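Researcher: For the record, we're logging two predictions in this thread. I'll number them. Prediction 1 follows.
Model: Prediction 1, sequence and structure:
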Amino acid sequence: MIESCKVAWSCPSNIALIKYWGKKPGQLPINPSLSFGLQKARTKTSIEIARASTHKINFLFERKKSSFEKRVISYLNELHYEFPWIENYSFLIESENSFPHSAGIASSASAFGALALCLTDIDWQIKGKDSSEASFFEHASRIARLGSGSASRSMYKGFALWGKTNKISGSTDGNAIPVPWNGTHPVYNDLRDAVLLVDSAKKEVSSSVGHELMNGHPFKESRAKQAHQNLSDLLQIMKSGNRDAFAEVVENEALSLHALMMSSNPSFILLKPNSLKIIEKIKLFRQQNSIPISFTIDAGPNIHLLYFAEHVHKVHAFIKNELVEFLENGRWLDDRLGEGPEKME
């Protein structure tokens, strides 16, 4: 056992192209999902441990006490069977985001991703293992999944797949894996994500409740079948570099996610009138300008406008001239395909 230790990791959030919606016991998905990690939207977390007779956990978010502390403590307590050493140490955990909490970006993915990386790093130091091994990130992905399913996909550079599929060797429900770079056309290296902030208010229904509602959903089986087919199609499209077909599948996934919410019991509608106006504007702009922009949406009202680096000036002008009026205080964030987690000094 070590007496004390401090580690810090920066972990990106990610945006799903093939959506994860609905889970089985053990935080396992009912269908595979595919996402890409962002570059700018990140959580930086440090964990300092010290041998102690009394196990204590102190959590600070941006140097202040946070309601998220309860979730962190619950998460660590549930990990005792994974990391038995936890009960022998006191913890000081400090975390901060590079993006606003209400920015329409999945903060739980980057938050639990950074936590899992720190915990796995400490565990491997205790065991004398080398954290540069590829299996380190697979292990961290499995630990992250236990806190937030989408966090499992934040462990890798580029695109990540979570969930068992016969389309990619090594895929599993237990952790995410990177999508091989030779499996994607180079055009996708320049994928961008403009996050359009329609409404920053807290969601009326949490994602965890939404996942639970899928258990009795009348379209559960057909949704799983649809997700497998869309994943298969998207992987082929990303090999070919067909950006128009990319938009078709990604948008179908986004709208299907919200259709599932609206048809659950009880049902809920997270899209706002301005969300729909932005979607209409994006489709019209694409049609009139022959520029391969598209959109995706997480479980909320904010729109992720996907585009490519070569069109950055035209897309930014489109946002400023035609979309800003539909945004909360005119706010939007620009991000891109990222480089994955980073260990901090």
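Researcher: Logged. Prediction 2.
Model: Prediction 2, sequence and structure:
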Amino acid sequence: MIDILDQQIKKGAEIIKNGGIVAFPTETVYGLGANAFDEQAIRKIFEIKGRPQDNPLIVHISRKDDIYIVATNIPQKAFELIENFWPGPLTLVMKKNPVVPDVVSAGLDTVAVRMPAHPVALKLIDYVGFPIAAPSANPSGKPSPTKPEHIKMYFGDKVFVIEGQCQLGIESTVIDITSDPPVVLRPGGLELEKIKDVLGNIIEFSSEKLSEKPKSPGVKYTHYKPDLFLILLRKRDDIEKISSFIKDHTRMIFVMTYDFDVSFQNQFRQKFYSLQVDFIFAGSDEREIAKNLFDILITKTTGYDLMIFEGVNEQGIGKGIMNRLKKAADVIV
């Protein structure tokens, strides 16, 4: 099996070196990668994803020292974060080395960089021999893939897929290190509490003007939208508030978090007796919920016209989960 996987990685590396694109696993989600220095190859990513041109990509490296290839004027705080959290689910926005094509950074003078903590991703970058630029491997606006079958659902045979699993299930945390204090552009797989322990003061990004180019993926455009109407229910006790939103729907899937309370399920069915309701369990803690999040949004929609997804505590990785659910939801209760 290891030999087969290694053959896949080598084939993927050859595709990238020849100007193609490849879907590969990271510890967060699947990436859709191309040579970070090949402008035409990068444009293929935008084309197949239907991605807006002003939405920058993340450059992935396999060695810490490779940061000098893609970034310049690197501040000391960046090195502190690198020492503590790379490889891992942390993306740093820094001043761009001019050798990185503008299409990668959406014309900005900054570049987003990370070193993934997945053996397949690291070996692929090593075999390619240069950094790989990669967004998540999904059509723009759809939930990010965490399994090979998700990519095949999205793209069929249009993209070569290296087999693997993603351990975390949501994308990396993104920090703009060009600001002082640094700014969190996107919460994600690395808890902000850990970053604060290293840096002290950081600013949590709250909104971005639509007229401005985003410095990071996942902050401006619609993301993570499943193929049905989605209600984010912050608290189970607020179930009364959803009545007006579900009246035009006929079949619902209810995603429970933390516990799979059967008595609540019975009460819910009695209250909304006109609906067909199925219940599924996302996980008993934030780590498990994060790992299952996108798989649920991608694969648990067939046959339903409404999904209710219970919220989680907005601390630790829960902040990243809620960031994704808020962007995916049609209604937040």
